[in-house]
User: What shape does this take?
Amino acid sequence: MKKILVTGAVGQIGSELTLVLRKKYGNDNVIACGHSKQPSDELKNSGPFEFLDARNYAEVETVVKKYDIGVIYHLAALLSAVGEAKPQLAWDINVNGLVAVLEIARNYGCSVFTPSSIGAFGPSTPKKNTPQDTIQRPTSMYGVTKVAGEILCDYYFLKFKVDTRGLRYPGIISYVSPPGGGTTDYAVDIYYKALENKKYTCFLKADTRLDMMYMPDALNAAINLMEADPAKLKHRNAFNVTAMNFTPEQIAKAIKKKIPDFKIDYEIDPVRQGIADSWPDNMDDSAARKEWGWKPEYDLAKMTDDMLLNLSKKLNLKY
Assistant: This one.
């Protein structure tokens, strides 16, 4: 088989996706790449690892040729809150890095998975049951880069027949990777603070409703999409996918069922609140369900049970 390259393999999604891919396809068949951050021992010792800058065509090309890469999961990107603080850098990494990878794919016959995001929508997008095909006018640099990425991937498919595929992820929650600067990261940090302090100060309003997904579902969605029959894919870049929908108040109530003395209060961050307010309340993911059989496994209750169980082991804390 041709091998798989994962850029951004030390990041929130990449660090877990790489290990799942290695378990599925074999350790030596999945090459992890990072820019500067050191990989975990598990990531480094379970298979090949290369340092590269995804914006640098020559560096990516060297790895693609060295390992005979056939599929690229391109995950190197800055997240929403960090992107607002460093908009020029966000454009450089999120867009110029993608262009380099797409050019590599065009020249070497690779398939490319690129995650988009709920952040690709904006205030003028229908907020409830957001359609697969709808207006996209984001007001964050992160969102701008994601819309640009979707269109670039469509262009490379239509113009050059590059097999590009992608997902519009909601907020992603995981007990493995710590929060990484995203607007939806409160839904990760809240579990840490519940176990450590029995209290969490949230930077979003109590009634801020957003779509979310547990990491195992996010990983399965990416792999299942890349394995889907291309003849059935009408929408390639990118499919709405979601698994659950809640507010900070609702996730706090789910935690209180397991940790009765847990408390939440609020200190609103205007930047992240503004980003969240520009995103949909919930997305319509019927196209993904119809075209390649998307079906999530986790809801809020099941995710809360699993998060608290695994985080309590990780932090060596009882609840």
Remarks:
- The two ends are 46 Å apart (CA to CA).
- The first helix runs from residue 14 to 25.
- The chain has a mean pLDDT of 94.
